[in-house]
Amino acid sequence: MIAFLLTVSPSLNAQIKRAPKYVVTYNSFGSLKVGMTVSKASKALGVRLVREEQEDCYYISPKSGFKNVSFMVNNRTIARIDVFGRGYATDRGAKVGDTEAKIKRLYKGMYKVGPHKYVDGHYIEVEMKSGNYSIIFETDGKRVTSFRTARLLEVGYVEGCS
Fold first, then answer.
1. Mean residue pLDDT across the chain
2. What global pTM score does this model have?
3. Domain tally, the chain
């Protein structure tokens, strides 16, 4: 029998420890996927999700363990993921607090920029090639203050479900 010993350099080990566990993509937050039922989403995260509103479209958020993230439910399935804190990054490494320049570098040739509706900032929108999903980074004109990923209909909602 041959045994192999794998050693990890201290700097790589530190990078692994700092890597976010819940990566955000066009249609997922870790193992939670857009289109899941609330029950399946709760199981995927391993926490109870609590309802915030009593409408056809509403938000749920983890009862514990996850800060600064919530999930829009529309037509009984997860439709959108909203991220408000630095603890989560996209699959390309974009996160709250990044500069607009960094977002544009990470998504070079894939984004469009528009004015923010309420502050002197921008919406930087990155549409997935298939055209079914998009990520919108909200900025204060310099840095990302939040981002959301969703199906095309729901990603454009500026005020939650509208």
1. 83
2. 0.74
3. 1
